[in-house]
Amino acid sequence: MCVGFYTLEHPEYALVLCSNRDEYLQRPTDLACFHSFEKLEGHSLSEGNVLSGVDVRAGGTWLGVSRTGKVAFLTNITEEYRTYGSSRGDLVASFLSSTSLEEDVHSLIPSDAKYAGFNLLLLAPSARGEHDLSFDGTYVTNHGGGGTIVVRPLSDAERRCGGMSNGIDGKGAETWPKIQHGLHSFKAIMNAVLPSTPEKELADNLFELLTWKSSQMPRARSELRNTIQVGPIQLQEAQEFYGTRLSTVILVKRNGEVLFIERDIWKFVDSKPVLSDPSSQRQFRFKLQQLD
Question: What is the three-class DSSP state of 237?
């Protein structure tokens, strides 16, 4: 039940994105690092071209950025649980690992693949000068499990201030309370950013946005639309605890400098959920490379 907010139109930043990953707390996950989605003998993780966490069970990821600036963010769609032959996280991995920024999105999707419901934000950078980086944005969704995959460009409004969670595109996804509250707070934060605003201040404000909770704790999956951060609950369809495991902030300046921070929220320790210390995080800084 992930959620994310982003802008591609701020004067100082080509991209600002903040997101929560909501997942079963027991699900095995590798923390964010540089890698290649392949564990190659004799190669260190720092040699990889993708920065992301990894879903150990399925092998893909929900959010990542490549050294060349490609960014992908994935959420599921709230629906009845069914199994499908393909993993949604593979779509993110394929996009981030592809060698061309101009590659057709359709070429990354197997023609016979069926996926559980998903929404997918894909961003590819372009630069007209040393300090003039921008991103092209694409929205991909199947509108629910097994559905036909649809690809569309982001609207002007989405480029200025977009939000994405687990609703169905074109069917009220933008009216969810978590999206409405998040967009309002995100706009206020970004409107206050000046050239002199420290990155740390901006990142801290975005992490604070991601902590917002509804006054009433959700008791079912359908109620998760009401809260940005999810405290640990046991959903009716499973015995495992579910909650916000990670929060991530990605800042990309117009000159290609990237700040990526992944912060732990809820963990599963000694058979119980534990709230992480706020200082438990991974931070990466790097400059985007240009493709040959």
Answer: coil
Q: How many domains are contained in the chain? A: 1
Residue 256 domain flag: yes
- Which CATH number is 47's domain given? 3.60.60.10
Contacts of 214 (CB under 8 A, 6+ apart): 177, 226, 227
For residue 44, the model assigns a pLDDT of 47
Burial of 133: CB neighbours in 10 Å, binned 0-12, 13-18, 19+: buried
User: CA angle, corner 75, sides to 157 and 228, nearest 5?
Assistant: 75
Query: What CA–CA distance (Å, rounded) separates 278 from 261?
Result: 12
Please tell me the predicted confidence (pLDDT) of residue 251: 98
**Which two three-digit tokens encode residue 60?**
């893909």
Per the structure, the complete domain to which residue 102 belongs is given by: 3-287
Across the strands, what pairs with 73? 63, 121
pTM for the complete prediction? 0.94
Token pair 């420290």 is found at: 198
Q: One-letter amino acid identity for 159?
A: R
